[in-house]
Design brief:
By secondary structure, this protein is of the alpha+beta class. The protein folds into 2 domains: about 10-50, no CATH class; about 60-210, Trafficking protein particle complex subunit 3 (Muramoyl-pentapeptide Carboxypeptidase, domain 2, 2-Layer Sandwich). It has 11 helices and 4 strands. It has helices spanning about 10-20, 20-30, 30-40, 45-50, 60-80, 85-105, 115-125, 130-135, 155-160, 165-170, 175-185, and strands spanning about 135-140, 145-150, 185-195, 200-210. A 4-stranded antiparallel beta sheet has the order 1-2-4-3. β1 (about 135-140) and β2 form a beta hairpin. The two termini are about 25 Å apart.
Amino acid sequence: MKAKKYLSDSGRRKFLTRQLPAGALVCLGCKNLLAAEGMKSMPQEIVQKSKYQTDSGMTTEDVFKFAYGYSLPIFQFMEKKLGKERLIELLKGASAENSEGLMKSFTKGVPGNMKTLSDMVKAWMSSPPYSNGFSYLVTEESDTIFEIKYTECPAAKFYREMNASNIGYAIECAGSDKMAKAFNPRMEAKSAGNMMKGDDFCIERFILNT
């Protein structure tokens, strides 16, 4: 079993911004200022193409907060207009349809067996930003079962802090079974725990019925 750990560097950034004197911050920025001067002589087309590919200076937690924080106020506005039950119903349907479509596009032409699914999930979780955003253990793995236990989830953390875990569950978790069946019609997904619902962990269990 392999564990992935969520790492945060927010303390270091707080120290730099709150404790260092202003003069030191200016010195720390000298290198960037000199680089900016050099960029003036570069063709504008190169500058425009390259600057958005540089490190934004955000932690993984910041990335998730930015992504979810932008859309949540929109969903909360819709909730006021449509009502909570109607909004959740629509979000669950949209999430399931989106998950189904993504899975079909990812797995076109690949074997619909459990090893292929487990390899795909592990590949996702080993890629940024997920690799630094989640802590998990593979708790069971066979030809017919793949079970994974998450102990840290930035999405659940964000939605719970914003008292919007019902919206988070509808968007992030409700489409799991639809996604599994898109991978293989004989497969199903079950959950024995979910952080969006207040549990300390999430368990996703994929079962291939023979």
